[in-house]
Amino acid sequence: MDDRDASLGRRLLALLIDWIVAALAASLFTGVSYPPADIGENLVITAFFVGQITILTGLLGFSIGKRVVGLRVENREGRPIGLPRALLRTLLLSLVIPAIVMTDDKRGLHDLAAGSRVIRVVKR
């Protein structure tokens, strides 16, 4: 195992943090309740989640949750994946199934489609 492998536990914790941040932002800016009262409120929270993750991951290489747990999303050259690929990755992640189907090198279908990988940031 590489010392930069991103464990499933870290990934899930980052996802939980990102969802909470999106729910709080949606509540603050639109007044939706949490837990959502109906499908409309759930869609608003999901839209905030997709927007937040796409922008941060595409431009910086990490979301708030990933930054907290020490993970980064990168392309083959080790750089952020850009907004179009981040949008594709995040939309597929929102469907859940692509994220839980993983290859031997711990890349979900959403990462394969976007040409990305998640690594643990190792401080030296």
UniProtKB/TrEMBL annotation:
It is found in: Cell membrane. It comes from the Bacteria. It is a multi-pass membrane protein. Residues 6-115 form the RDD domain. The chain crosses the membrane at residues 12-32, 44-65, 86-103. Keywords: Cell membrane, Membrane, Transmembrane, Transmembrane helix. The keyword DNA-binding does not apply. This is RDD domain-containing protein.
